[in-house]
Amino acid sequence: MDLFSAKFVFLAVVALVVLGPDKLPAALRAAGRLLAELRRLSAGVQAQSRSMMTEAGLAEPIAELRSVSRTLRNPLVGMGGTARHPTGTAADSRPTTVSAAPTQTATSVRADPEPVWH
User: Fold this and answer.
1) pTM of the predicted model over 0.90
2) 99, CA 20 to 30 Å: which among 22, 32, 39, 116?
3) How far apart are alpha carbons 43 and 24 in whole angstroms?
4) Is residue 58 a part of any domain in this protein?
5) Cα–Cα distance between 89 and 43 in angstroms, integer?
6) Residue-wise pLDDT tens digits, 77-99
């Protein structure tokens, strides 16, 4: 069980104990309505900000910045390679074509047991 699931189960048990089985369904319905309203408000704000950016002529420069940002986040995609996300999933479905042999070797330049890497 991941951390999110454990938190969710913990919150469900606390809500059941605090509200009781009689009030819990009504509280969950009210929470669902609140979340739906927040999503609607968020979508309205996003649409309004997009229209303001379009009217101000900022939509195209922002789209270009997003494109550059995506390129900087995944530099190997443009080179035909596949970058890995920290979760281990591939960021691009193309096969990896980048291969390089190691060019540096480890050598110890001191007499102590800790090697110095060059």
Assistant:
1) no
2) 116
3) 29
4) yes
5) 30
6) 555 555 555 555 554 444 444 44
84 bridge partner residues: 90
Q: Phi/psi at 13 (nearest 5 deg)?
A: -65, -45
- Determine the distance from the C-alpha atom of residue 62 to the mean position of all C-alpha atoms in its chain, rounded to a whole number: 20
pLDDT at 30: 95
User: For every residue of the chain, which 3-state class applies, written as one string?
Assistant: CCHHHHHHHHHHHHHHHHHHHHHHHHHHHHHHHHHHHHHHHHHHHHHHHHHHHHHCCCHHHHHHHHHHHHHHHCCCHHHCCCCECCCCCECCCCCCCCCCCCCCCEECCCCCCCCEEC
In a domain, residue 46? The reply is yes
Residue 53 CB: number of other CB atoms within 10 A?
15
Q: What domain count does the chain have? A: 1
Helix 59-73 vs helix 3-55: crossing angle, to nearest 10: 140
* Residue 61 is assigned to a structural domain of this protein: yes
